[in-house]
Amino acid sequence: MDGLERDCGGARRDLGGGRARSLADAAIARPTTWFHAGIAACASLALLVGTPAHAETEDGAGRAKGSHLPGKQVAGRKKPAQAAAPAAPPAQSEPAAAATVSRAWSAGPSTTSAPAAGGAMSPEVAKMIKFAAFDKLSMKGWITTVPPAAESIFQDPNGLRTALAEYGIGYVAYSTNTFTANMLNNAPPKPQTYQGQIPTTYSFSEVTLSYDLGRVGLTGGQLSVGAMLTGTTWEPLGPSGAKFANLYYFQSLLDDTVQLQAGVFYNAQNYLGLLVAASMATGPQALVPYELGLSRQGVPAPGANLMINLPYNFYNKAGVQRSISPDGADIEQQANPIGLGFSSPDAKALFIDEFGYKTFSSPTQGSVWVRAGGMYNTSPYFDFSAGRKTDTNWGFYAAADVQISQISSAPYEAYQGYYVGGFYMTSDPNKNMYQNYYEGRIYGMGIIPGRPMDQTALILGYTTLSKSALDFQAALTGIRPFGDYASVTVSNSFRLNPGVYLMLGTSYNVHPSATPRLRNSLNFMASLTTAF
Question: What is the pLDDT of residue 378?
Fold first, then answer.
């Protein structure tokens, strides 16, 4: 959607992610964009010198190899009861072992015990046990799946992960670089009001180090600190530049039944599940949660979350964070340039609670994730009906993702198959430009023969704008914006190599810009996600 601005008694607030920055910030954006372009080039070079993914994951007939090697347990859920272990398969090569285990990144783990070859532990199983130890040191607390060590370009570069693990230190490093362009070329280049109106790039990179506090007697505790670098050619997607991504303490209690997270972080990775299959490699996003002040990539905020894993795969997660400035991401950036600020203009407490049910794929069942929640912001927001700022803002959401078929019954390929999902969110119509968001999605994991880790998706999105906001905008400018926005997106995320995903897609957008009224667009999208 467009980066729409509105004038509220002199205070400008961008509801699409921040209005245009100053010339100084724009100057920062250019070198950081080139820096990310360099990252993308390095990742492409890694594809040329690395082992092709199909060589690692297919047999001679082009079929995906069966594997029963251990995957990474997604943080935030206790493992379900183990299924009966099948007979051990023939031993695989080490590259094949790494590839098959890394499939759990997108779909959650299996629960079957690791097999042994001929009654003794095979080299590939020993390697994956080593990698599982790395993953235990990885950052915790996310609902979005953190890429495991096996699913990274360098895995254990020159023994770096091994050396750090000896001191209880783990790390996650990844980068996402996107390109969007309207192929119909039917919109003026200025002013740019939506992503892709002219060719648009956005880059985000993050490195986070985590330390196991069990080394100092605090069993189940972890301290994480991370930095990020963003760059874009369209500033409403920003802010651009370098800052802290997170600095937080995580504590697991009672065998992961209770999990506490406190510090500075972005909560978009901790709630809702907007990303398709909860994978960082894919996924559109709604604007409504960010209108309500939820922290996201580029704009972290201090807060605390408490998650309780209940019996029968239910959970409840509740949190409080300092809201992102209700006047927009640009005001937040000015008040919080290094990412660790505890205050921002007019920003008060944002409360969020999510109740859900979540299971992972196994040979006997498909994955199911159903959740619903609410957000309540105590910050003063501009009220369109009153013509001034008034206290509080609110929103509710409900979502579901259900696996409806399985292609393979092998424990570590149980995630392969077809899924359906949906998302709905509504917000206070007097405080928010984007009032309702609806999404339906059908997607497949590993449905293309010989491509066991690819994800194919069809996504329908529909957003309605608040009547109060439309009336206010029409009275202010004499032009009534479009009252809705719709999109149809078809995409495929190609797993090119361990830790390298290329998403290609097209999106047809009805009313891509609320104001000015521009023609429908057909956007080409490309996104390269790499984990290091």
Answer: 97
**Cβ atoms within 10 Å, residue 498:** 27
Which bin fits 119, alpha (ψ -120 to 50), beta or left (φ > 0)?
Answer: left
- As a whole number of angstroms, the distance between CA 208 and CA 147 comes to 12
Task: Decide: 494 and 468 in contact? Cβ < 8 Å.
Answer: no
pLDDT for residue 216 is more than 50:
yes
Inter-residue contact 496 to 56 (CB < 8 Å): no
Cβ-count burial of 10 within 10 angstroms (0-12 exposed, 13-18 middle, 19+ buried)?
A: exposed
Cβ pair 135, 64 in contact under 8 A: no
Asked whether the beta carbons of 525 and 503 are under 8 A apart, the reply is yes
Residue 484 in contact with residue 464, Cβ under 8 Å?
yes
Q: Is the dihedral of CA 450, 497, 104, 461 positive or negative?
A: negative
Give yes or no for residue 25 having a pLDDT over 60. no
> What is the rounded average pLDDT of the residues 512-532?
92
> What pLDDT does residue 245 have?
95
pLDDT digits 0-9 by tens, 76-104: 444 433 333 333 333 333 333 333 333 33
- Residue 30, pLDDT > 70, answer no
Which residues, 6 or more positions from 350, have their beta carbon under 8 angstroms from its beta carbon?
A: 292, 293, 294, 303, 320, 321, 322, 323, 375, 376, 377, 378, 379
**Top mean-pLDDT range of 57-71, 139-153, 279-293, 326-340:** 326-340
Q: What are residue 506's DSSP bridge partners?
A: 490, 524
Pairwise CA distance, residues 275 & 144, whole Å? 8
